[in-house]
Amino acid sequence: MPARPATPSSESALSAEETRRVLSALSDGPGFAVLRGLAVEGLTDQACADLCRSVISVTGSPRPRESAAPMDDLLTTPRAPSSAPAVGEGSSRAGVEVAALAPHTDRAGPPRPPRFLALLCVRPAPAGGETVLISGHSLHQRLMDCRPAVLPELYRDFRFGAEPVLARTAPVFTRTGTRITVQYNRYQIERGHQAARRPLTPAQTDALDAFDEALRDQAPLLHLQLRRGDLLLLNNHTVLHGRTAYTDPHRQRCLTRAWAD
Fold first, then answer.
1. Three-class SS of residue 113?
2. DSSP codes, 130-159
3. Cβ neighbours of residue 117 under 8 Å, at least 6 residues apart?
4. Which residue blocks in the chain are alpha helix, DSSP H?
5. pLDDT band at 66 (very low <50, low <70, confident <90, very high)
6. What is the DSSP letter of 37?
7. How do residues 196-228 score in pLDDT, each as one tens digit?
8. Longest Cα pair distance anywhere in the chain, in angstroms?
């Protein structure tokens, strides 16, 4: 979509036609939309977060700002190595090199994973940090073609996360009529089962390994280098998102995040 002026108001950030196209892409199309060139010059990081929330409000009701943790709406280069290099904002060495982020869906706070996710690029990393999108439907089809025996296990419950306010039990795949939704985060599943003292069974481990293999083999929907002012909207129930490794010697990278239902 073309560049446009933008202020922290959903009405001025998106036209009626852009709103229609976004909603169609998220619900009936590929599950994502990219808005190019929102005017973030002169805005503070927090004002950019407000803008991000105002845009996602066209999709539904925004989640509370701090759904999981303080400053949850600002994603910046970490100061110290993360204990979760596979899924999280990554691990770092002196805030210079940050590991890749494995494709996943967001949990957010209760009662369930948010339907929509918005990411607004305030400042990109100097090198790397491409966003990677993968279709949950395509992953399901690949497993059906190559490893159909593991699908019943992926339709059964797993434990996601260890924190009392965030932990939940849910299947990886859910089918409602002809629609298939996905919820996946291998790191959080392993944390959840460890915290509950309910080790993953061999069948569960085999199913998760098959899912990870399909992730590695599946061609992404998109490799996207978000530039300053670019905003990505995606359907968190059907599209997994990740990020390539990046270098950020001055810890300048900043994205804002918002969720909506």
1. coil
2. -EEEEEHHHHHHHHHHH-GGGHHHHTSEEE
3. 56, 106, 233, 234, 236, 241, 257, 258, 259
4. 10-13, 16-27, 45-56, 136-146, 151-154, 186-195, 202-217
5. low
6. -
7. 999 999 999 999 999 999 999 878 878 999 999
8. 54
Token pair in block for residue 97? 């090199």
* Residue from 120, 106, 114 nearest 60 by CA: 114
Query: What does each C-alpha distance from 240 to 10, 165, 169, 192 come to in angstroms?
Result: 25, 23, 19, 20
Distance (Å) of CA 17 to CA 11, 52, 58, 234 = 11, 19, 12, 18
CA–CA gap between residue 226 and residue 80 (Å, rounded): 24
Mean pLDDT rounded to a whole number for the chain: 86
Cα–Cα–Cα angle for 66, 69, 73, rounded to 5 degrees: 55
Burial class of residue 151 (count of CB atoms within 10 Å of its CB; 0-12, 13-18, 19+)? middle
CA atoms within 13 A on the CB side of 28: 5
Supply the Cα-derived Rg of the chain in whole angstroms.
18
113, 236 Cβ separation under 8 angstroms: yes
Would you list the DSSP string of 60-94?
SPBPPTTSSSTTTTEEE--SS--S-SSSSS--EET
